[in-house]
Amino acid sequence: MREVKAKSFAAFLLAASTLMGSRGAIAQLCVPSAGSGPFCLTDTVTQNGSGSLVVTDPNPSEPVNSVTPTVSYGLSDQFNPGPVDENISEAAGGGGPWNFYDDYVFTLNAASNIQSALISFSTGLVGISNLQARLFEISPLTVDTNAQYADNFATANITNPPADGTVVEDQWTTDELGASGYYTVMLNQHAFGSGTYVLQIRGEVAGTPASGSYGGSISFTPVPLPAGLPLLLSGLFSLAALFGFPPRAFGARSL
Fold it and tell me: Low-confidence residues of the chain, pLDDT below 70?
């Protein structure tokens, strides 16, 4: 079992390294997702030398990501050089400091299990350290375009916890592989209902000027029906027929 896990993790490192090397600009140049294709970056929050937060929105007029499971996406971002001046003073939590926040806003069209994995590395001179990620829901807020979120919610939601009206589904998580400078993030798979969510990633880009990247993936799979539910529904329809109730009373359609 350990050997299988080691091979799987080595494959993950190789895939993530490929993403960072060849697909780092996807976040800036992507086409909005429609069940396939890249998972688009909504905005990046940094702090300038005057202590003010700066929101960079690479695709302001585009709609937020729309997701219908089953589907998987690659995601990545790079700073070459990055618009990073200083650490974000409003950032809170363990494992910092951090000088950028990336937001990936998406609308989930059906109940789904969500799982995400990310990786970055830092030599101290270049790269991204302190990589962390979390997932939170912003429903029932209505966010149709990237600009709507970037202009109205991006800076308010870097706090810990994020602003009122949000529900944190997965708390900040990260793991450094010993003292290797490699950072991994694994958001464990569990069920989410339909709604609008934010995958938020933060880290510390090293270097003067700042230079670094991260890469990874996010996957969505349908939430299966409980094992006994089809049998229960079958029994309900049988009872409906026995007592003369029309199928419509139980949500069925007449053919």
Answer: 1-38, 82, 225-255
